Every structure is written in C-alpha cells, then in structure tokens.
C-alpha cells in the first residue's frame, strides 16, 4: 500500500522544544532538567561523523576515521573520487587545492601523484600541512572494517568500482551507498547482492520515489528539509518510513534540517539534537561534532569537562 495515501502534504508547523527560548538561564535550566531522562531514551541513536572527525585530523584522512571511531561514531561519512588511473581515493572536492599542498583535478592525477601530496589540517585552506597522505578507498575500508559503517558520498556514479573494492575486502556489508536516483536504477544495483546497504535521499521533489522501492527497502532514508512545512517531514509519513528503515537527519548546517543544527545544539541540545529525534524520528544524526554528540547521548558520564549543557549537574 502506498505510504503517501492519506498524507496531508500541507503540513502544519511542527511544535519544537526550546526554540522560542530567549533567556540563557531558561534554556540552561530546561536542558539540565532533561539530562536524567534523555539518556535511556536516546540509547539507540547512531552517530554519523561527517568526513571523519575533521576537527581533530584532516578531513577524509585515515586519522580522521580513527578519531571518529575513538570518539563514538557508529558511521563515518567519507567522499570518494576516481583518479586518472582508475583508483579510488578519499577527497571531498573534485580537486586537491583546498586540502593539500598541490593543485589539480583528481580525475587528471594518478594515484602516485596524489600520494606524493600532504594533507592540510582540519578542513584545509590556509591551515598547516601535516604528514598525512591522501588515502585510498581500500585503506579506508581496512580502517573501518569490523568497527563502523562507512557512508559513501559522491560514490553513486562510480558505484560498481566502489562495490568491487568492498567485495575484494569482504566488506560489502559496511558500505552504505546513497543517492536520489530513480528507484528502478537503484534496485537494479541492489539486486546483485543482498548485503549491500543503501540509503535514499528524500526531498520535497522526489516523494514519488517512496513507492518505487517494491523489491528492496532502503536501509535508511536521508530526509532533508529547509522549512518545517515541507511534505517529506509529515509526521505520519516519517513514522511510516521509520517502521522499516532508519531515519537519517543532518545537523551539519542550516537548511539541511531547518534550523536544528550542531550550533543550536551547543547552546541547548534540546533545541537541536533532541528535536530531530523527537519530532522527525531520527535514528541517525550526522554531525560535525562527534565528541559533543556522543557525550550528550551518554549524558556526560565519561566526560571530565562537562561542556554540554544538557549534562550539567547542578
């Protein structure tokens, strides 16, 4: 039966906790009182760390993957590119200019040329050079295997090569492919191996894709929304999707989940992370702040410096 039947796409504004709070004291008090109750409630939430843990190592480096894992990530998001000689490496941009001491497009550089470069710290730009090198996808698989899922960004167009690398290392089940491609195209790819994990990106303009998955149910739905009135976050629809799949929400920056960002969560986790859990059925949150999100979910039990207000004990 269609999940869209009976859904009112003109959704009313969703009530959210704490968003209207203006007083620092009010927000802090509300978050503090919430501390003891939220830990058990959120114990099954998975953390996806964006580009590894780029706050502590160069983004998309093996060190960033290791740091994300050590700080509590369940999923590590990486970006995959293909070199001039057909090898797969990790890099967000199509060129190496921002993240290395070199220049040029990855598609025009060989693996050997790329591995002669040094990665810049954090998110690159004017940051200092490190001794870290551009990793291959296989090196990333080796670092993640048996420890975390790897979310494969920028990989759909080269999915066959990505799959082959995962298969060669007996690691297909840790790679989470994603796209907003036509469901027929997606299911043709999924038909080849039942162990492939797949997440579909759901937005206002592709709601019809939901009913296109007649052979394979996505492992997760990545739901993005700029405002609270968009039909893809209709409560009934999201709850229906959550019955069989994980719900992935990005708290990275404004516009991916309206205003429920990491920055808002730093001021008051109730207004940020807790809202996407309570009101949008999030079971996976992608963050640029893996340390803070992990410690908030643990309620600060392992944190010496209690910088997350939801875990302040008065």
UniProtKB/TrEMBL annotation:
<dbReference type="InterPro" id="IPR030395">
    <property type="entry name" value="GP_PDE_dom"/>
</dbReference>
<dbReference type="GO" id="GO:0005886">
    <property type="term" value="C:plasma membrane"/>
</dbReference>
<dbReference type="GO" id="GO:0070291">
    <property type="term" value="P:N-acylethanolamine metabolic process"/>
</dbReference>
<dbReference type="GO" id="GO:0008889">
    <property type="term" value="F:glycerophosphodiester phosphodiesterase activity"/>
</dbReference>
<dbReference type="Pfam" id="PF03009">
    <property type="entry name" value="GDPD"/>
</dbReference>
<dbReference type="GO" id="GO:0006644">
    <property type="term" value="P:phospholipid metabolic process"/>
</dbReference>
<dbReference type="Pfam" id="PF16387">
    <property type="entry name" value="DUF4996"/>
</dbReference>
<dbReference type="InterPro" id="IPR017946">
    <property type="entry name" value="PLC-like_Pdiesterase_TIM-brl"/>
</dbReference>
<protein>
    <submittedName>
        <fullName>Glycerophosphodiester phosphodiesterase family protein</fullName>
    </submittedName>
</protein>
<dbReference type="GO" id="GO:0006580">
    <property type="term" value="P:ethanolamine metabolic process"/>
</dbReference>
<dbReference type="InterPro" id="IPR032160">
    <property type="entry name" value="DUF4996"/>
</dbReference>
<feature type="domain" description="GP-PDE">
    <location>
        <begin position="45"/>
        <end position="314"/>
    </location>
</feature>
